[in-house]
Predict the 3D structure of the following.
Amino acid sequence: MQEFLEFTLGGLAFGMIYAAIALSLVLIWRGTRILNYSQGGMAMFTTFVAYSVIQHTGNYWLGFTVALVSGLVLGAVLERTVIRPVENKPPMNAVIVTIGLLVLLEGVAGMIYGGQFKSFPPAFSVTGLKIGNTALGISANDLFTAGAVLTAALLLAALFRFTSVGLRLRASAFSASVAQLLGVRVGRMLTLGWALAGLIGALAGVLVTPQTFLYPNSMDAIFVLGFTAAVIGGLESPVGSVVGGLLLGLVTSYAGGYLGSSLVDLFGLAILILVLMVRPAGLFSPSATRQV
Amino acid sequence: MSSAGPLSSTGLLALAIEDVVAGYGGAPVLDGVSMQVKPASITAVLGANGAGKTTLLRTITGFVKPRRGSITAGGASLVRRSPDAIARAGVAHVPEGQGVITELTVEENLRLGALTRQGRASRATALADAYQRFPILGQRRGMAAAGLSGGERQILVIARALMAQPKVLLLDEPSLGLAPRIVAQIMDLIRQLRDETGLTVLLVEQNARSALSIADQGVVLNLGKVVAEAEASTLVTDVGLRKHYLGF
């Protein structure tokens, strides 16, 4: 029972990271029908930026903030420069461009920072919390992680639902040509979508890196699981990506805890295959079929 | 009879199209089209499938770039501007068929129409006006637009276009797929809008009889050229034209 509690809470905490990556992928997919394979690389890069700031100033929160802002800027700049030419082109063009971006970002990070593992500080203590004598399997930092992702998800949902910018973003995503007919500058909305995705990805990067070390490939495995979470959630739905992330966090945590940590990735893929067999469009997709 | 019109100054026209050549690569779909639309009038653009009616609208709203010719609305050129800029300049386009964003609610669709208006108060007024004119939309405001009937969707896209207080409303086949009774209601609505709000309408229709019943002017397109341009009442009585191009 004690173990089960630990694995559950630990799984939920890690699931929030997958959820954040999934959320950033969904933001871009909805707006541009592009799967951003460089999302993990972007998050790694902004975490390195945070690392430099923390090294120089010793201020964690300054690094945290700079990471988020640079994620926002990186997303916007990449959309304007390299993604804009492949929007509304055959899907393979965008696949190649975003994979190329991933290689580029990882290469540049290696050139600047080298390939060795660097430890990245957590925001709060990583000592396990206890209630009485019962270990909960999570730390204060895990609580912060979960709270930060949840807050970001809720803020995004509020932005989409209650603001005029959110209405423009949704209209551009659902029907770009109709949005344009109504005077929406769709191009700006796509840039904003990428910027927001860069921001959420950057958040995931600084939150997860204390547990993985920082190096040019540090986000690769996280990205694959975040991608899995997004597909489980149906790629369209922000709520779906959070649920997909949590589900995946739980399954991988139980698999790692009860059966051995080498099985985590295997179970991640197993649940993806299972979901795709039962509901090929994902758990939260509005339509049952989609052409990809 | 295509280009010479009674008004020489394009500034007095709601919409002026001069010698426009446009298409999608290859042979032009519009081959030197000219027409003039007076303010607070309904101009019906008629013709068979493939005559270039929809391409004409898409060229006016900037989705198709003309290779030649000029298009002005209230004297301001629309050529080489992006569709969203043309919309902000006061030209509203209700596209054929799928103009409703089905994933959004009725109210969100309407609010989308008012985004070009300045000021929260003016947007709120526009929404209240829309619900007053179209009570059915008020009843359905929180519903996903996917749940509306065909007639209700057509009312919604027209109401949404009006939210921006456009100078010119372009309507592409508003009767498409609707029952005759609903078509009559939509035509009535368009006439009311002209009479009560002074709206200028360019109405593209295959259903020539319905369109001419409310139009002031009629323009007949065939294979990308204007083959007739006259008062609607004149076109209706031209048996040869009706038989050749209008099918009734």
